[in-house]
Amino acid sequence: MSIEIKVPSPGESITQVQLAKWLVADGEQVEKDQEVVEIDSDKASFPVAAPEDGTISLKAAEGDTIAVGAVIAVIEPSSGSVTAARKPASASLVQNPDKTVKADVPDVPKAAESPAGREGLSLHASPLAKKIIEEKGVKAVDISNAFPGKKITRSDVEDFIRGRRPDAPSSGGSLRKEERKKLTTLRLKLAERLVAVKNQTAMLTTFNEINMTAALKLKNTYSEVFKKKYGVGIGLMSIFSKAVTIALQDFPQVNSMIDGDELVSPGYVDIGIAVSAPRGLVVPVIRNAESMSLAELEIKIKEYAVKAREGKITIDDMKGGTFTITNGGVFGSLMSTPILNPPQSAILGMHKIMDRPIAVDRQVVIASMMYVALSYDHRVIDGRESVSFLIKVKELVEDPLKMLTMGEDPVTLLLDL
């Protein structure tokens, strides 16, 4: 009995998704729980697995926009396990105590009957890929050289055809090529939200610079000991996250947002950490960050970084958030204007650390400096609050010991002044 693979619901209010990429070829044998397709929604990407062993038949193409609940593939269950089905027969005859019988060996097309065979080459490709190769007149030797040691799929063939036609000139002259592909649902939603931010908020950005010498010294001195105890090193993102949670308690307006005709000021800090994922930027949220230690923040940040890298960030991971931190410095950005993550009213942008001359006690010294930027919604946050908040973050990062005393000067507390 055929088994249908349907598009699961990725979350409330989502009725359509986009088929991002097939991970298997049409007619391929798949195993139960094997991931067969990647789906893009307007909030996150997620894989769909095969419910049973069998031969898969694809019913939708990459890039298609599909309704939630629609059938995208059908599996014909195999009589035995996929592993057994893939195991080659070791001999043409199987010995039996009673008699010798011919083994059930699938018929193999003669080399002369396949496009690969015509060139004396055994092509390792899926049935659908071989069909396209033959229809398009692609030389098997060319595509085999393009994907050495790999089982060639339909998408590989299509990429090969788009990138270099067999009859295209191999050298000389300028090849004026262009590629068109449908925008992912995630990218379309992101574009919609970014335009809405520019049109619906009064966004301004204030800048400052931070001397990172003390923070880097803390990181370099204690990272190994920290890692032995907690399993993670000390990262600058966790240092900034801790500084932000303290500064937001002094300036709660920066942690507020507009909801209709009301101003909502949460009594907690849920920090969104912008991380790069294979299909774009995602912002998982660390909840109740104000109650977390530096180690707890670092562990959570690492957990999200790994999930993002593996494409496993879920919609629940990204729900909510009262403030966001993004770090363009990891890509080499010296200064930028981060854009708000609605409905939040502020976002902090970190940037590249560079050694440059600054004045300290009327002397020119070389220090490790970082520009920081705070973009904010002027409807909610006034200039005084935005600048004061950013200065508070600067003070805490430049003197990390103040984080132990919730922003107060340690010496003042020690002397009980």
Low-confidence stretches: 81-121, 165-172
**For the record, what is the CATH homologous superfamily label of the domain at 201-414?**
Chloramphenicol acetyltransferase-like domain
Major β-sheet, in short?
7 strands, mixed
How many strand elements?
A: 21
Q: Using the 3D structure, state the CATH architecture of the domain at 201-414.
A: 2-Layer Sandwich
Assess the beta-strand content as a share of residues: 15-25%
Mean pLDDT: 82
Q: Which CATH class of the domain at 201-414?
A: Alpha Beta
Please identify the structural class as seen in this structure: alpha+beta
- Based on CA atoms alone, the radius of gyration comes out at 29 Å
Q: Helical content, roughly?
A: 25-40%
CATH T-level topology of the domain at 201-414: Chloramphenicol Acetyltransferase
End-to-end CA span: 80 Å
Counting copies of identical and different chains, the oligomeric state is single chain
What is the overall silhouette?
elongated
What's the total helix number? 11
Detailed description of the structure:
- The protein is α+β, with helices and mostly antiparallel strands.
- Among the domains are: 88-163, no CATH class; 201-414, Chloramphenicol Acetyltransferase, CATH 3.30.559.10.
- The chain has helices spanning 82-86, 127-136, 140-146, 154-163, 185-200, 213-230, 236-250, 294-309, 315-318, 383-398, 410-414; strands spanning 3-6, 16-22, 29-30, 35-40, 45-49, 54-58, 65-67, 71-77, 93-95, 100-102, 203-211, 257-259, 262-264, 271-273, 275-277, 280-282, 285-286, 323-327, 346-350, 353-360, 363-377.
- The strands form six sheets. Strands 11, 14, 17, 18, 19, 20 and 21 form a seven-stranded mixed beta sheet that branches.
- A hairpin with a 4-residue loop joins strand 4 (35-40) and strand 5 (45-49).
- Helix 2 (127-136) packs parallel to helix 4 and helix 7 (236-250) packs across helix 10.
- The longest helix has 18 residues, at 213-230.
